[in-house]
């Protein structure tokens, strides 16, 4: 059974700019640019019936298009870093869209998300990377800020359980107003 999640895709030019950040970090497994995205709601491995209900509830979301900016590079995991990410500037339209995805998930019978929403684009997953090397990499990337791009749709993606980072399959797309 595939794992389902909703996401915002990145424009090709933004993905290309992010791909230039690849390299220079021992222990990093870099995500391919075509797999960059901003996760809105992770549903996980769910039965087909719940997946169908989730897809139907997502189709009811009625939000406007909006602009997003990517800024800053960071890591998750503290002293045992596990990933490198690019941050997403918080915005009210993004928060509304994510809350609508959470509502759709609940309508489909999914358990509530317990983690705080931290919008980001994962650049790399880390295995045995030292905190020192990660800190040095982050220092070299300081001050990243990319031009805004328009979010005109969101997607429902699936993946097969493995190391992560794609490839992802497009299950459905939903246009914003």
Describe this protein with a few key phrases.
Cyclic Phosphodiesterase, Chain: A, alpha+beta, four-stranded antiparallel β-sheet, 177 residues
Short characterization:
The protein has 4 helices and 10 strands. It is α+β, with helices and mostly antiparallel strands.
Structural account:
This protein is an alpha+beta fold. The chain has one domain (3-175): Cyclic Phosphodiesterase, Chain: A (Alpha-Beta Complex), CATH 3.90.1140.10. Helix content is 25%, strand content 33%. Strands 3-1-9-10 form a four-stranded antiparallel beta sheet, with helices on one face. Strands 2-7-6-5 form a four-stranded antiparallel beta sheet, with no helix packed on it. Strands 4-8 form a two-stranded antiparallel sheet. Helix 2 (48-58) runs antiparallel to helix 3. The longest helix has 16 residues, at 92-107. It is globular, with a radius of gyration of 16 Å. The model has no long low-confidence stretch (mean pLDDT 95).
SSE order and pairing:
Elements lengths: L2 E7 L2 H8 L8 E3 L6 E9 L2 H11 L7 E3 L1 E7 L6 E6 L3 H16 L12 E7 L4 H10 L8 E3 L1 E7 L9 E7 L2
Antiparallel strand pairs: 1-3, 1-9, 2-7, 4-8, 5-6, 6-7, 9-10
Helix pairs in contact: 2-3
Using only CA atoms, what is the Rg? Answer: 16 Å
* Distance N to C terminus: 32 Å
Estimate nothing, just give the exact number of structural domains.
1
The CATH topology comes to: Cyclic Phosphodiesterase, Chain: A
Biggest sheet: strand arrangement: 3-1-9-10
Strand residues, percent: 25-35%
Based on the coordinates given, report the CATH architecture: Alpha-Beta Complex
Helix count, DSSP H or I runs of 4 or more residues: 4
The first-level CATH class is given as Alpha Beta
CATH superfamily, by name, is Cyclic phosphodiesterase
Oligomer: single chain
Gross geometry: globular
Q: Would you tell me the overall average pLDDT?
A: 95
Structural class: alpha+beta
Low-confidence region ranges: none
Write down how many β-strands occur, each being a DSSP E stretch of 2 or more residues. Answer: 10
- Percent helix among the residues? 25-40%
Instruction: Report the major sheet.
Output: 4 strands, antiparallel
**SSE order, one letter for each helix or strand:** EHEEHEEEHEHEEE
